[in-house]
Specification:
The structure holds two protein chains of two kinds. Chain A is mostly helical. Chain A has one domain (14-444): Formate dehydrogenase/DMSO reductase domain (Formate dehydrogenase/DMSO reductase fold), CATH 1.20.1630.10. Chain A is built from 16 helices and no strands. Chain B is of the alpha+beta class. In chain B, 50% of the residues lie in helices and 11% in strands. Chain B has a four-stranded antiparallel beta sheet with strand order 2-3-1-4. In chain B, 43% of the residues are buried. The chains are: A mainly alpha, B alpha+beta. At the A-B interface, helix 1, helix 6, helix 8 and helix 16 of A face helix 1, strand 2, helix 2, helix 3 and helix 4 of B.
Chain lengths: 457, 175
């Protein structure tokens, strides 16, 4: 029986790439040329931020979490906010690389590699935060079910333990998906470069030759990995949301949390995709591969998820009013008009309002406007998590314990360190591996025919 | 996966094509003459080549299923056994409460399903990969390669067939 593993639909006119297969290889391999001064300065900046975070972390290890501004009843604050923020960032990558792959959406091809890399590095960044936050980092392995002297096992009924499994799985599967997708492209680079670079790519291409047998197994495996990653990405942020929703803290205890968090995660991830790709395409001179059409589609997805968030924000306020629950009502009143009103309105304006500008095609295809909007999205989504976590904890059921959170140098140090860590890995990746999927771009370009006529894709 | 560099080469004829229809014609003609163990190189998967080769479905999917089911069983098995091994009452729930354990079982289903898929892909590429095959770096760029294994007696007819189908280059590989 003949098997057609992955028929690619006919791309829309806007996606027709007027290049040959050889052009694609040449252009993508050119992105791996020795770095410019600008790139090195960006990398140095990222490393400097990471070192600032590392020094802060070492001080926290030495002295304890007291530096981090925790006071009763607020024991989750900037670190958990930033943890949820980075986990969310990863979601757009998997949406584009796996979910749009299953939907046979051809525009994902040019952008999915960079978004998939973003996912892996964002989850790597997020995974640091539970370890930073537990205070006693040297016993982090207590979270894992390992045989110990007292045969004591972790509490599997706790959402925090679900999170350990969800994030470990998400990181492993995302990294696997990225590496598998890279193999044919690394082989293409291997066949173009010389010297020590060839030796490195020879090793990392795992002996790939593009034989019919390799493609047969590869195509099938990639399809199943995408199918497995799809429910995973939807589950991960649902599990993160249950860290909150399974408690009885006012403002957290809602059934809307899982879809609300997933939509927010994808929205924040799309914001970061735009922030990264808009300068990247110019720096790597791949404007002809990542075009206005791609940005238009990314912006439409951003608009969709932003509108879901707008609905969710409205629904949160409605449910708290409709519930008749005084604690819920007070919590949401305080989010809009209490001491954290500025954070609450930053979240609503940056996420729910700014995204509505994307109804206009002129804005969706104006890269300067999109870049500015993406910065607002990043800011707004960080504040969303900050508002959800801190405003609810600061006004618990016991009024005499009510408090406010004032982030300290230790909070900001770790926060900027996380951006440095993420940027450092992303920049290193962009100069070491093909940031555009060579093989998938080639699938969209019809091969030449002796008998003339178009391609047969 | 077969290494790019091999000291012992498989004997045969290697034809390079620029045109997809020419390569497909050559594959069909070779198969019609009884050459079933062809190796076709391409820079991207192509369903015309797949159809001409009449490939069967990759067995990778079976390993995905086995890995996923193993992960699911391991998730429920681990959580239930560990709860019963150290029975602690949490939140008034039963000691081995199934609903919260669904999350762990789901995650392990995905994890083992994905890892076994990749392991199977690597395994089949190694086990079924033919060693010492002739290769040209242009195959990862814009050419299609067809390698026809065989002894010296087959070189002439195969070379003629490849050239008449439209091969831009034909090489004779000796052991």
């Amino acid at each position: 029986m003949a098997v057609v593993a992955r028929p690619i639909p006919t791309p829309p006119p806007a996606l027709v790439i007027r290049q040959t297969h050889a052009d694609v290889t040449r252009d993508v391999v050119a992105t791996l040329d020795p770095p410019s001064t600008g790139y090195l300065m960006l990398l140095a900046g990222a490393v400097a931020l990471f070192l600032a975070g590392l020094i802060t972390f070492l001080i926290l290890v030495k002295d304890g979490l007291g530096h981090a501004g925790y006071n009763p009843p607020i024991f989750w604050a900037v670190y958990i906010t930033t943890f949820v923020f980075w986990i969310g960032i990863g979601h757009a990558g998997t949406l584009i690389s796996a979910i749009l792959f299953l939907f046979r959406s051809p525009w994902r091809t040019a952008v999915y590699r960079s978004t998939e890399a973003m996912t892996v590095f964002a989850v790597m960044t997020a995974a640091l935060f539970p370890i930073i936050h537990i205070g006693r980092q040297w016993v982090f392995y207590w979270l894992l079910p390992y045989p110990n002297q007292r045969w004591l096992w972790p509490n599997f009924k706790s959402p925090l333990l679900w999170d350990v499994f969800a994030i470990s799985t998400y990181f492993t599967v995302s990294a696997t998906f990225l590496v598998v997708g890279l193999i044919p492209d690394v082989a293409a680079v291997r066949d173009k470069v010389t010297g020590w670079r060839r030796s490195v790519y020879l090793l990392t291409s795992a002996g790939w030759q593009g034989t019919d047998n390799q493609w047969r197994h590869y195509s099938r495996a990639y399809l199943y990995l995408a199918a497995l990653a799809t429910p995973l990405v939807l589950s991960v942020h649902s599990v993160v949301s249950w860290d909150f929703a399974a408690s009885i803290v006012p403002g957290w205890h809602g059934t809307i949390f899982a879809p609300y968090f997933v939509a927010g995660a994808i929205y924040s991830g799309l914001g970061m995709v735009l922030t990264l790709i808009i300068p990247l395409r110019r720096a790597l001179r791949i404007e002809h591969m990542i075009t206005d059409y791609h940005f238009d589609n990314l912006a439409k997805l951003t608009l969709l998820t932003g509108s879901i968030l707008l609905y969710a924000y409205g629904m949160e306020y409605f449910v708290s009013w409709y519930s008749g629950n005084t604690f819920e009502q007070t919590t949401f009143y305080r989010r809009a008009f209490g001491s954290m009103w500025w954070a609450g309105w930053t979240m609503i304006i940056c996420n729910a309002c700014v995204s509505q500008l994307l109804w206009f095609r002129k804005i969706r295809t104006n890269l300067t406007a999109l870049f500015v909007i993406s910065i607002f999205i990043n800011l707004g989504m960080w504040f969303e998590r900050y508002v959800i976590i801190v405003s609810s904890l600061s006004n618990d059921y016991i009024p005499w314990a009510w408090s406010n959170m004032n982030p300290t140098w230790a909070d900001w140090g770790i926060l900027i360190g996380s951006f440095g860590w993420f940027s450092m890995w992303f920049l290193l990746f962009a100069k070491s591996f093909p940031i555009v999927a060579i093989q998938e771009i080639k699938e969209m370009i019809p091969m030449p025919r002796k008998r003339g006529g178009g391609g047969h894709h | 996966m077969a290494s790019v560099k091999r000291t012992r080469r498989a004997p045969g004829v290697l034809g390079s094509f620029v045109h997809i229809d020419a390569a497909v014609d050559a594959i069909r003609a070779l198969r019609a003459r009884g050459h079933r163990n062809l190796v076709v190189y391409s820079a991207a998967p192509n369903h015309e080549i797949e159809e001409a080769l009449d490939q069967s479905v990759s067995p990778v999917r079976l390993f995905t299923l086995i890995g996923g089911l193993t992960g699911c069983a391991a998730g429920f098995g681990m959580t239930i056994w560990m709860s019963l091994d150290w029975p602690t009452l949490v939140g008034g729930k039963t000691i081995a409460s199934i609903p919260p354990y669904v999350v762990i079982a789901f995650e392990l289903t995905i994890l083992l399903g994905a890892l076994s898929t990749v392991a199977a892909m690597a395994l089949f590429s190694v086990l079924q990969g033919k060693r010492g095959l002739a290769y040209d770096p242009l195959y990862s760029d814009d050419r299609i390669g067809i390698f026809v294994p065989g002894g010296a007696d087959q070189v002439g007819p195969v070379e003629q067939l490849l050239r008449s189908a439209g091969a831009v280059e034909v090489r004779h590989e000796t052991a």
